[in-house]
Every structure is written in structure tokens, then in C-alpha cells.
């Protein structure tokens, strides 16, 4: 019998995650900070879009025409249901990579994205993808690719092979994926507990197994039970990408752009002395013990002249997505937690406190009396954006064009909150991407869309939705069983929603 899955886990659908690095507007900021000319993204493609959260949000929230494929038909069915009748809807396919990448009707792309799948597909599929990139990416275009990497997996990577080996050799046929995963976890725990020297030489494996126990079984199924799984060193990825005529541009993780958060002064000096950019990335991965890379690669990367970079950065717009008073002046990097200087960050937060888009040039002028330079503002923006408090913002015309479609998509996503906590993100026309919104707030937004108003009515609506599913609100990880306490907690949440969270959601265009 032909195995249409090509060794990929299809018995459990993937999680409903949203990945902000796939937002071309974020890529633009990262590339400008790195001094590289960014493309004007009009066409984009996501290979392996999973449940379609990212591709649908990015298609409806900005003006790029998105195309993509995922060969799991159940996931494509859900993604198409989300996209139905949306303005600016994505063009979604359920073809395998080999068939999709040979299609003659696809446009040339400014942006191609692959989140995670590079680690989970065979070398044959990697060759198909690399060939697709070589043929279909425009000159100056960007590829976003994320993947498991070495040396971070050096100690725990063998656990993946052990779990997959146990599943193939010892799990009885016919049991469900979750049971297969739990049986494999039990076996590895038992093996380590037996006194295996591997566990003694690699004590971090015990903590790794604890983390696996706590993770969504859907995620573990796709991460650990595919036939093909390979953490790839940067040097090997470089060979693949340069073979497709791409060069490494920069990290898609904003906090990676701030050396002081991740590298000591001697480490920075050591890396600065390495002339080869690729080997410099390899050495950096050893310094920070990198597990997972999120990278932007560019075909025909061009360096910006300093004055050109400055002017383009001044034109970038950002929006504060957290109430200024709630932003913690702490951030974590590879070196641990760092304190942010109050005298630098508080004026920036106050200038952005209206939750409206402001250009970096505008901030530079406003904050000049505080001694803020553009360089300092850019660093602060990268840190605040990396911590999730701030987002790049689109032009007003693009925001207006995307507003109706994002509200329609958000109503559909909030409707799912009646039944489960799967979706954790809604679309924002201001940021051109997704914005994290908790399930309880999604229920409140759904209630408002149905004409429900007032703290008590919102709380009652959420309580009824939870009760219909046999669910309760959670406190300290446990369900609240007392009805009176649950009512009080829901009313408190509804009050905080109306007074604090809803105004931000409305400013970002997530809510009407």
C-alpha cells in the first residue's frame, strides 16, 4: 500500500500555533537593523502551513498574496474553512512538496517561509524545497527557515531516536498516538532510572524528560515520531541555502540582535575576530548552546549605506501592545535576566502609551530632550519587540484595507473558544500579523460580537460556554469547583477586560 504520508506523522493533527517570524513586516525590521535591503513583499509562500493559522492571519492582515501547501488533508480542510470568503484569502493546497513545487502556475515570490518542517522531512524533500527556492524566489527575496540545530541537541537528541526506535519495535499496532507517546516516555524514563551511564553523563536528560511530559501530545507526535528527524548544524544548513543561491542575512529572533543579552564582552570580541560570517554563526551557536534556529536568508543580499539604513529605520513604525505601566523592565537572554534602564525605557514607553503607530523618526524627535539617539531607540525597539511588548506597524492605508477581513477572521477564531483552548492568537491589521489573546478574552469578544454588554453579562456568557463543555475556569492550575468563586473570578476578568485589555485590542484592530 502506498504511504501518502512519506513517513510524516499524520495520525494527530498539529497544534494551532501562530509564528510571528513569518510576518514579512517583522522580517523588514530585522533586516533593516542588520543593514540589509529588505524586499517589498507582494507575494509570499508558506510550505507546510499546518493548521493554517499563520498563513491565514498574514494573508488577511496585510496586502501580500499568500500561497502555500500542507499535505495533511485534515489540516488543509481546517485552514480552508478559516479562509472561506475572506478578502485577501490565502491560496491553500493539499499537495505534497514534490507536486506543489513543480507547479507552473505559481508566481515568483518575495518571501518564502518554512517553520520547523526542515527538521522533519527527508533529504529528498529538502532537495525539492531547495530547488523550489532556487526557481521561485525573486532576487532580493527572503527565505525564513526554522530548524532544530546543533550543538544544543547533542545531549538530548539521542532520546528522540530512542523514542522513535521504541515506537517502531515495541509499541503494539493499533494503539493511538497519545498512548504510543506515553509508552515511549515511560520506557526512556525507566531506562534512565535503571542507572544507564548515558543519563549519568548527561544529567540534563532528566529535566528534558520532565519537559516532554508536560508538553502537548500533538506537538510531541510531530516532533518525535516522524520517520525523518535531523537537528542540523548551521554549517550544513548554509550548504543547502547557498546551493539555492542564498546567503545568511540575520536572525529572526529580535533578542539575538542585542549582543549584551547573550554574549559576554570577551565572547563578543572573539566572534568579532572571525571574518567568515557563516563560521561566526557556528561559533555563536556553541557559545549559547543553540537548540533551535530561526533565520532569514536573502537571494542577492545588498548592504545598506549607513545613511540609507538610518532613513529607512526612521520610517519604520511601531506600536505598543502592552499597557505602558505593565511593561516589566526586565528581559531574558542567553546570559540570563537583565534589567532595563528606567531612564531609557520609561520615556519610550510613555511616548508609545497611546497604542497608536509611531515612526522611529518621530520617537527620535520626541525623545531628543531625554538624550535618546536613534541607535538607542532601535536597540530598545528590538528588546521590547523581542519580549512581545511592541510590534512593527503597517502604513495607515494598509491598516484600513485589512480591517474588515481581520475582524471577520477573528470572529471565526473566537467562535472556536466556545469549545476548546486551541487558538491563542487573533489577527491585527495594525501589525499585519497575529496578536496573543487568551481564551477567556476570546469568549468576551465573541459575546460582544453577539450584542452582549456589561461585566455581569460577559461573565455569564463565558460561564455558560464553559459549562456547556463541562469545563471550569482555572486557578493555580486547578479547576475552580465553587460556583460563587467562579462567578466572582469571571466578573473580575470581565472588568479587567473592559477597562484594560479591550482598549488595547481595539487600538490594534483586533476588536471593533
Can you describe what's shown?
It is built from 21 helices and 16 strands. The strands form 5 sheets. The chain has a 7-stranded mixed β-sheet with strand order 3-2-1-4-5-7-6. Strands 11-8-12 form a 3-stranded antiparallel β-sheet. Helix 3 (73-83) links the parallel strand 2 (65-69) and strand 3. By secondary structure, the protein is an alpha/beta fold.
Mean pLDDT over all positions: 93
* Biggest β-sheet strands, sense, barrel: 7 strands, mixed
How far apart the termini lie comes to 51 Å
Helix content: 40-55%
List low-pLDDT spans. Answer: 1-5
Strand runs, count: 16
Give the C-alpha Rg.
24 Å
Put simply, the count of helices is 21
Q: Identify the strand order in the major beta sheet.
A: 3-2-1-4-5-7-6
Q: What characteristic shape results from the CA principal axes? A: globular
Give the DSSP E fraction (strand runs of 2 or more residues).
5-15%
Structural class designation: alpha/beta
Attribute tags:
21 helices, seven-stranded mixed sheet, 512 residues, alpha/beta, three-stranded antiparallel sheet, 47% helix
Summarize it.
By secondary structure, the chain is an alpha/beta fold.
Q: Layout of SSEs?
A:
Blueprint: H1 24-33, E1 43-47, H2 53-61, E2 65-69, H3 73-83, E3 91-93, H4 97-100, E4 109-115, H5 123-136, E5 137-148, H6 157-169, H7 177-193, H8 197-201, H9 204-214, H10 217-224, H11 234-243, E6 247-251, H12 265-272, H13 277-288, E7 292-298, H14 306-315, E8 317-320, E9 330-333, E10 336-339, H15 342-351, E11 358-359, H16 360-366, H17 374-386, E12 390-393, H18 396-416, E13 425-428, E14 433-436, H19 439-449, H20 455-468, E15 474-475, E16 478-479, H21 483-507
Parallel strand pairs: 1-2, 1-4, 2-3, 4-5
Antiparallel strand pairs: 5-7, 6-7, 8-11, 8-12, 9-10, 13-14, 15-16
Helix pairs in contact: 2-18, 6-7, 7-9, 14-16, 18-19, 19-20, 20-21
Amino acid at each position: 500500500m502506498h504511504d501518502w504520508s512519506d513517513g510524516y506523522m499524520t495520525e494527530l493533527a498539529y497544534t494551532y500555533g501562530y509564528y510571528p517570524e513569518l510576518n514579512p513586516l517583522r522580517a523588514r525590521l530585522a533586516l533593516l537593523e542588520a543593514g540589509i535591503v529588505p524586499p517589498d513583499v507582494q507575494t509570499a509562500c508558506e510550505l507546510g502551513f499546518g493548521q493554517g493559522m499563520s498563513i491565514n492571519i498574514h494573508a488577511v492582515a496585510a496586502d501580500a498574496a499568500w500561497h502555500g501547501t500542507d499535505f495533511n488533508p485534515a489540516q488543509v480542510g481546517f485552514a480552508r474553512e478559516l479562509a472561506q470568503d475572506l478578502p485577501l484569502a490565502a491560496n491553500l493546497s493539499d499537495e505534497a512538496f514534490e507536486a506543489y513545487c513543480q507547479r507552473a502556475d505559481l508566481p515568483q515570490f518575495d518571501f518564502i517561509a518554512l517553520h520547523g518542517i526542515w527538521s522533519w522531512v527527508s533529504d529528498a524533500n529538502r532537495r525539492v524545497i531547495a530547488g523550489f527556492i532556487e526557481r521561485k524566489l525573486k532576487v532580493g527575496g527572503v527565505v525564513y527557515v526554522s530548524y532544530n540545530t546543533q550543538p544544543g541537541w547533542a545531549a538530548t537528541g539521542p532520546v528522540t531516536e530512542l523514542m522513535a526506535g521504541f515506537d517502531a519495535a515495541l509499541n503494539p499496532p493499533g494503539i493511538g498516538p497519545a498512548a504510543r507517546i506515553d509508552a515511549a516516555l515511560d520506557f526512556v524514563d525507566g531506562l534512565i532510572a535503571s542507572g544507564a551511564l548515558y543519563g549519568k553523563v548527561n544529567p540534563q536528560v532528566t529535566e528534558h524528560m520532565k519537559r516532554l511530559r508536560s508538553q502537548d501530545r500533538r506537538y510531541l507526535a510531530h516532533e518525535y515520531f516522524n520517520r525523518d528527524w535531523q537537528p542540523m548544524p548551521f554549517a550544513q544548513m548554509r550548504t543547502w541555502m547557498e546551493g539555492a543561491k542564498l546567503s545568511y542575512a540575520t536572525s529572526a529572533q529580535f533578542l539575538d540582535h542585542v549582543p549584551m543579552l547573550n554574549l559576554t564582552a570577551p565572547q563578543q570580541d572573539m566572534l568579532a575576530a572571525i571574518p567568515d560570517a557563516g563560521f561566526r554563526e557556528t561559533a555563536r551557536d556553541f557559545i549559547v548552546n543553540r537548540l533551535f534556529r530561526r533565520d532569514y536568508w536573502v537571494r542577492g543580499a545588498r548592504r545598506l549605506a549607513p545613511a540609507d539604513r538610518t532613513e529607512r529605520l526612521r520610517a519604520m513604525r511601531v506600536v505598543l501592545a502592552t499597557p505602558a505601566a505593565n511593561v516589566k523592565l526586565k528581559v531574558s537572554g542567553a546570559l540570563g535576566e537583565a534589567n532595563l534602564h528606567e531612564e531609557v525605557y520609561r520615556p519610550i514607553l510613555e511616548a508609545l502609551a497611546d497604542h497608536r503607530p509611531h515612526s522611529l523618526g518621530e520617537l527620535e524627535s520626541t525623545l531628543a530632550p531625554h538624550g535618546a539617539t536613534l541607535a538607542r531607540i532601535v536597540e530598545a525597539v528590538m528588546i521590547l519587540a523581542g519580549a512581545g511588548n511592541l510590534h512593527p506597524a503597517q502604513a495607515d492605508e494598509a491598516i484600513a484595507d485589512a480591517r474588515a477581513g481581520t475582524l471577520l477572521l477573528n470572529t471565526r477564531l473566537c467562535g472556536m473558544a466556545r469549545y476548546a483552548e486551541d487558538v491563542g492568537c487573533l489577527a491585527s491589521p495594525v501589525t499585519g500579523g497575529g496578536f496573543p489573546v487568551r481564551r477567556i478574552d476570546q469568549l468576551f469578544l465573541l459575546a460582544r460580537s453577539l450584542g452582549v454588554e456589561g461585566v455581569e453579562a460577559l461573565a455569564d456568557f463565558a460561564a455558560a460556554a464553559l459549562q456547556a463543555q463541562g469545563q471550569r475556569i482555572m486557578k493555580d492550575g486547578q479547576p475552580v469547583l465553587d460556583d460563587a468563586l467562579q462567578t466572582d473570578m469571571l466578573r473580575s476578568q470581565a472588568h479587567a477586560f473592559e477597562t484594560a485589555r479591550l482598549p488595547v485590542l481595539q487600538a490594534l484592530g483586533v476588536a471593533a
